[in-house]
Amino acid sequence: MRHSILSAALAAWLGAGPVAVAAGEDPYLWLEDVEGPRALDQVRQWNAATAAILEKAPDFETYRTRGAALLNDQARIASPDAVQNDRVANFWQDADHVRGLWRVAGLDGFIAGKPEWRTLIDLDALAKREGKNWVWKGALCLRPAYERCLIALSEGGKDAHLWREFDTVSGQFVPQGFETPVAKNNVSWLDRDTLLIRSDYGPGTLTQAGYGRQVRRWKRGTPLSEAPAVFEGEPTDVSVWSMTDIEEGNTYPLIQRDLSSWTSQFHHLAPDGKRVRSPLPDHAEVEGVLDGRVIARLFGPWKQGGKTYKEGSLVAYAIAPLLEGKTPGIETVYQPSAREAVEEVGLGKQVLYVKLLDNVAGKLVTVTRSAQGRWTPKPVPLAPRSVIQLISVGGPSDTAFVSVEGLTAPESLFAITPGAQPVQVAALPARFDASQMEVSQRFAKSKDGTRVPYFLVRPKGVKGPVPTLMHAYGGFRVATHPTYLSKNPLRLGPLAQFWVEEGNAFVLANIRGGGEFGPKWHEGALKAHRQRAYDDFHAIAEDLLQAGIAKKGALGISGRSNGGLLVGVAYTQRPELYSAVLMGVPLADMKRYSHLLAGASWMGEYGDPDKPEEWAFLSKYSPYQNLKKGAPYPKVMFYTSTKDDRVHPAHARKMAARMAEFGYPFYYYENIDGGHAGSANHNEEAYRAALMLVYLNRELRGIGAPAAP
Questions:
Q1: Contact 262/311 with Cβ under 8 angstroms?
Q2: Are 182 and 238 in contact (CB under 8 A)?
Q3: What's the average model confidence in pLDDT over 149-165?
Q4: Residue 255: is its pLDDT beyond 70?
Q5: Which helix (H) or strand (E) holds 571?
Q6: Which of 561, 579, 601, 641 is the catalytic position?
Q7: C-alpha–C-alpha distance, residues 275 and 286, integer Å
Q8: Strand intervals (E) in 199-304
Q9: Catalytic residue among 161, 267, 676, 682
């Protein structure tokens, strides 16, 4: 075995021992009691034991303070979360505003690089005044005036939140205005005095996944409990949603009924209150409304009106004929090539912005419609082989804001106006010396012969293998982007930058299950085919070792959420490959995942463990059930959040408890706040990144680790 007597003693110190239970019963069900005294006491013991070791490392405080400075740096780009006529809105956090500011500035001044910000909500002041740990969850403003907005606030970062009505003219919350209960709400404006709202209306009104299944029409000044339902789904559905597009005096409300993770029905609400079923197939996804036409993305082929529309394409139909009882014509808006995948769509008044992935590199096109119904794409000239993110679209001239960056290229923000060249609005200063690093894209051959891409960044001119950290996600159509190392959205904080600066390699793996190459790339790892994603991951690890990139015995892996499941599978299947594991806010117990919090909503991705035929394939990789004694497991670092009401913290807790039972050492950090993000602010994120860096140094570089006896 890899672990010494000293390590075995550490494992006993870090974890709870086995519990006497009936044969076949899970001995750690008590850890599913999120805030139960016994469970929280165990969490505190694990947290304290981990902090006692990792916080004492000489570099810990340097990592933490430097990370916080980077994350809170005022020089960050203030990206426009929304374009609201002649202004932009932005949510901003820094060292002086830990919870954040919601603010607005004039559109022209912002594009010119001279924004004059007006603060609308100081979240720190609000939290202090109300005695709440408020975390910002977004704003929804009523078009076309953008004077009244609904503000989403969560206590501690949970998915469950409330909406409160805010007046941007007075800069105050509206007295006796709309305020929802705390729940996993969905709201949309019908008009100034009417909302469509999905919420928790009491017993019998939630789906098995824990989301509301009723959409109600709520009039100002009336009790929500008396609001009439306009739509009700079934208990077996995942959820129902409302969305409303308002264009030049026309309001287009739409109800989305999610039948499973990846299938939905759509219903238009006519002005007289009648529901009219959309002709879209169940695999489609609505992007919004442009000039009275629904824009939708297809995730499978669609036969309609004697034609077949290809999977991955964008299509459109006019709403007015449908509401009149006619069959609307279907138009192809954009058909991606074999190498392309549509990833983001932004809708203006007359222009559609489509962000594509081309062999995992980003590119942007505008698409406009002629009077004859022909949709014409036009590429937007931006840096090739970059990560492009479509941030917001709007305003009188259909302005789009787009960020452009790379692993070693800091982010730049561009304003795009149809018919004009992109204008650089702001650029992030370099956070490190990119001339000392090199970036490449490589491919590994998976078990079934599939070529799987990955990005590699390491010190320039490095000779021989070095300690390497590989990060991946591989699920839910989500592509993994090679974004700038110091600000990457992988929730690793500045970890990747510091890691490479110190002479190591960082890898981003684009395994199946994600959205890098369109629907087929995702579908290739669904349900019974999930092992393909794990085979892709193992293949990249082997390629790194065989190519002499990763140092043998010093290859670490990282993943969050579905990626946390991924790395849990990786080390239980191939422990000899991996020497450190950052397993974040993970799924792990795939036997019970569908009974924990929002887990039932993911059965379309993984399968139903209560069906014997589906548990048959889930059981082969579920990390919790596949842990065994006597295996050469690495010393894992688990991290999660008590207030994660999406992926239950019991997944990480039970993995840790089972590891302790079997005598394996591990590290554990459970932040009380933060929700599924795992941290509620930049300071908490910097603290966690410092813990993880010290852990990687100990396990992959031998820095700060105790000498073997």
A1: no
A2: no
A3: 95
A4: yes
A5: helix 562-573
A6: 561
A7: 17
A8: 214-219, 229-232, 239-247, 250-258, 264-269, 275-277, 285-290, 293-297, 302-304
A9: 676
What is the mean predicted confidence (pLDDT) over 400-405?
97
Percent of the chain with pLDDT over 70: 94
Q: What is the CATH T-level fold of the domain 5-69+466-544+552-701, as seen in this structure?
A: Rossmann fold (3.40.50)
Reply yes or no on whether 561 is catalytic. yes
Question: What is the DSSP secondary structure assignment for residue 423, as one 8-state letter?
Answer: E
Helix segments in 77-136, DSSP class H: 107-111, 123-130
Q: What is the pLDDT of residue 3?
A: 32
Listed in sequence order, the DSSP H helices in 116-266 are 123-130
In this predicted model, what pLDDT tens digit does every residue of 78-117 receive, in sequence order? 999 999 999 999 999 998 999 999 999 999 999 999 999 9
Domain boundaries, given as residue ranges, for the chain? 5-69+466-544+552-701, 337-428
| Residue 150, SS3 per DSSP | strand
- SS3 at position 558: strand
- Residues paired with 443 in a beta bridge: 453
Strands (E), 54-161: 82-84, 87-94, 97-106, 118-122, 134-141, 148-155
* Cα separations in angstroms, 383 against 121, 425, 491, 665: 36, 15, 25, 46
Q: Which residues of 209-219 are buried (b: 16+ CB within 10 A; e: fewer)?
A: bbbbbbbbbbe
**Residue 601 burial by CB count (10 A; 0-12/13-18/19+): exposed, middle or buried?**
buried
**What's the pLDDT tens digit per position in 453-492?**
999 999 999 988 999 999 999 999 999 999 999 876 567 8
Query: Edge-to-edge strands of the sheet including 162-167?
Result: 134-141, 148-155, 162-167, 172-173
* Residues β-bridged to residue 240: 257
Q: What are phi and psi of 208, to 5 degrees?
A: -65, -20
∠ CA(332), CA(320), CA(287), 5° rounding?
45
Give the residue from 708, 707, 704, 672 showing the smallest Cα distance to 39.
672
Contact predicate 42/51, CB 8 Å? no
- Kindly indicate the confidence band of residue 676, based on its pLDDT and cuts at 50, 70 and 90: low
The per-residue pLDDT for range 134-146, each reduced to its tens digit, is 999 999 999 999 9
